[in-house]
Prior knowledge:
Layout: H1 16-19, E1 22-25, H2 31-43, E2 49-52
Amino acid sequence: xxxxxxxxxxxxxxxxxxxxxxxxxxxxxxxxxxxxxxxxxxxxxxxxxxxxxxxxxxxxx
Length: 61
């Protein structure tokens, strides 16, 4: 398969900067993993807030 050859579907160019608002990481992820996600996202031009999920916290009500 050639680099630009499409076999299924259609190619739709998107801007990840517009598509992604924040990056959520598992609540069980260690701090070094959050730092890694931050550095990789910045390295590839996606300077978004990286947040550790509070999924396991109690409900807000």
